[in-house]
Amino acid sequence: MYDPIFAKSFSKYEQKRFGFWAILVCTIMAVSIFLELKPGFHPLAILGNAMNLQLSIDAAQDKLAMKDEDISLPFGIHAVEQAKEGEQTDMLRVNDMGTSSPSATEAVESDPTNTSIVKDIDTNPPLATQAKKVETPSEELGEPACNFLGPLSDYCEIKGDIRIEANSSTVFIVSPQTTIAAKNKSWSTRPYARKGNGGAMISVKKWTIKLVSHNEDNIPRCSINHSIPSILFSTGGFSGNPFHDFSDLLVPIYSTSQEFGGEVQFLATDHQHWWISKYQMLFSRLSRHEIIAIDKEKEIHCYSRMVAGLKSYKEFIIDSSKFPHGLSMNHFRQFLRSTYSLERTRAIKLRKGGGQKPRLMLISRGRTRKLTNEGEITRMARKLGYEVIVAEAGLSTNLTSFAQLVNSCDVLMGVHGAGLTNMVFLPDKAILVQIIPLGGIDGLARVDFGIPSKDMNIRYLEYKIEATESSLIEQYPLDHAVFRDPSSFHKQGWGAIRSVYLDKQNVKIDLHRFKSTLVKALKLLRRH
User: Fold this and answer.
1) Sign of the C-alpha dihedral computed for residues 86, 92, 95 and 96 taken in this order
2) Same domain assignment for residues 383 and 276
3) 287 vs 132, more confident
4) What CA–CA distance (Å, rounded) separates 146 from 159?
5) Inter-axis angle of helices 511-527 and 374-384, to 10 degrees?
6) Rounded CA gap, 272 and 240, in Å?
7) Could you tell me which residues belong to the region Disordered (predicted)?
8) 525, containing H or E segment
9) Which of 233, 248, 344, 476 could form a disulfide with 427 if both were Cys (CB 3.0 to 4.6 A apart)?
10) Are residues 243 and 289 in the same domain?
11) CA distance 322 to 304
12) Vertex 25, ends 21 and 31: CA angle to 5°?
C-alpha cells in the first residue's frame, strides 16, 4: 500500500501537503455519501429549524409584552400595539402563496385539542400555545387562511365547499382530496374583536372550522345554497356599551365587509335582536341581504367564500396598511355621515369680530365619574364665548337624532368614559376634550380616544385632574396609596382599578385650572 520510492520523489513539505489534500478529499466524499443516505440532515434543514424556533420565540415575546399591558388596560386593550405603529408582528399569516417551508407549527395543526384560541377563564392563552398560532394553508386541500396573531381578533378566510351546521357551531370545509392529510384538521375561533379579555369572551360562542374529505361519513348536506360570501361575528361580549359597539363590532364589521361591496351576508352568533335593531341603518347599507341569526338555524347554509371572525388590528382605528385601497377611519366617518344625514363635514373656523359662537357639547354622566359642578363649568364656557349643550345618551336614545346633535358641535367634552365614543359623529377639525380622572389611567385614556382622534381628523386636548378635584379626597387622606401609588392598585388587577378609580370617583373641576383648556380650544378653532 505504501510505496517508499513514490514517497522519496517528494520533499517533506510536499508530502505533508499531499497528505492534507488526501484527507480533505476523503472527508468530502464521506460527507457527500452520508447526505445522500440521510437527506433530512442538511445544513439548510438545520437553518430552517433555527428560523422556525426563532419565529416561535419572537411570537411568544410579542404576546408577553402585550400581556404585561393588560394589567392597567381594561377590556384587553393593548397599548403596545398602538405605540409600535407599522409593526407587522400581528400579521404573521404565512398564507399568501398557500405554501411554506416545514415548521414546528405543522405538528399541531391536525390536533383539535391544540386549536382553541381563547380560554373560557384566562385572559391570555398559555405562552406556548400563543407561539404556535401560525397557520399555513394548503390551497389544494381547501384549508382556511387564518390569522391568530393579531392583538384584538382572530379570523379565518375560507374558500371552497363551505357548510355551516349551527347546532354544533361548526363550519365544515369539504375538501375534494381523499388523502389522510385532509382529515382531522380543525381550528377554533370566537368571532369577537376583544380576544384578550376573558370577561368579554366568556359570552362569545366558540366555533369550530373543520376540514374534512368529501368521502367521509356524516358530512352535513346543503339545504340552502348561497351565491354570496358570508361573515360570521358575535354580538355577545361587551355589546351595548357604546365604546365596544364601535371598537369591537361596528368598525371591524365595516372594514371586513368593504371588499364585498354590499354583496355579503352577515351571520350573527350570540344574536341580540335589540342590538341589531339599534344599528339596522348601518347594516342595511353594508349588506343588501338579511342578517341571519345563525345559532337558531336548523338548515345547513352553504357558501363558497366566508370570513369567520372580524379583522381588527388597533383600538377604535382602521389600520389602513392592512386593507386594500387605504381604507381608513375617514372612510368610516363618511359612511356614518351619509347613513345618518350628518350635514357638517368641517368644524367652525372662528374669525376676529365674526360674532360666531362655537358649539360645545358636555357629555353628562349620571352614575360614576360625574362632574359635580357641571353648572359652573357651563356658565364659564358661555362667558368665554361658547354655546353649550349638556347631553347624556342612553340605550333608549334615538341614535340618528343624537348623531345629528353631536355633528352640530365643534367641541365634545367629558370625563373619560364610553360617552366620548360619540366623537365619531363630529365634523372634521372639531376638538375632543377628555378629562382624565385619578388612577394612573392616562395611557388607557389616550389609547381609547386620544390616538383614535388623530385618525378621525379630530383635534385632541386632555385635562388631568389633581387630587383636590377628585371626590376620593373625601374618602382617603392625601398620603394614602390611592393618591401616592396608583400602581399598587394596578398590580391587583383591573377589578381594583375599576372599583376605586372609576366606579367610586366623581370630579369637581377647578375652574381656574380648566379655563386655559377651553381657551386653547378656541385658539385651535381660529387656526383650523
Assistant:
1) positive
2) no
3) 287
4) 12
5) 40
6) 10
7) 98-123
8) helix 511-527
9) 344
10) yes
11) 23
12) 145
Domain that holds residue 497: 341-527
Q: What is the pLDDT of residues 232-269, one digit of tens each?
A: 999 999 999 999 999 999 999 999 999 999 999 999 99
Shared domain for 295 and 348, answered yes or no, is no
What contacts 10, CB < 8 A, 6 or more positions away?
Answer: 18
235's CB contacts (< 8 A; 6+ apart) are 249, 268, 269, 270, 271, 272, 275, 276
pTM of the predicted model, to two decimals?
0.75
Q: Count how many domains the chain has.
A: 2
Residue 40 grid coordinates? 433530512
Mark whether 165 and 296 lie in a shared domain. yes
- Closest C-alpha among 471, 475, 474, 476 to residue 509: 471
Tell me whether residue 334 is in a domain: no
CB atoms within 10 A of CB 152: 25
Distance of alpha carbon 272 from alpha carbon 270, whole angstroms: 6
Residue 334, H or E segment? helix 329-340
- Using N-to-C axis directions, what is the helix angle for 399-407 and 329-340, rounded to 10°? 120
Three-class SS of residue 212? Answer: strand
Closest CA to 170 of 181, 193, 148, 186: 186
pLDDT computed for residue 21 by the predictor: 64
What is the longest distance spanned by two Cα atoms in the chain? 116
Q: What are phi and psi of 292, to 5 degrees?
A: -100, 125
pLDDT given for residue 366 in this prediction: 86
Q: What would the grid cell of residue 451 be?
A: 390616538
Which cell is 410 given?
A: 365643534
Q: Are 310 and 237 in contact (CB under 8 A)?
A: no
389: left (phi over 0), alpha (psi -120 to 50) or beta: beta
Domain shared by 397 and 306, yes or no: no
Give pLDDT tens digits for 166-175: 999 999 999 8
Which of 293, 302, 276, 21 has the alpha carbon at shortest distance from 159?
Answer: 302
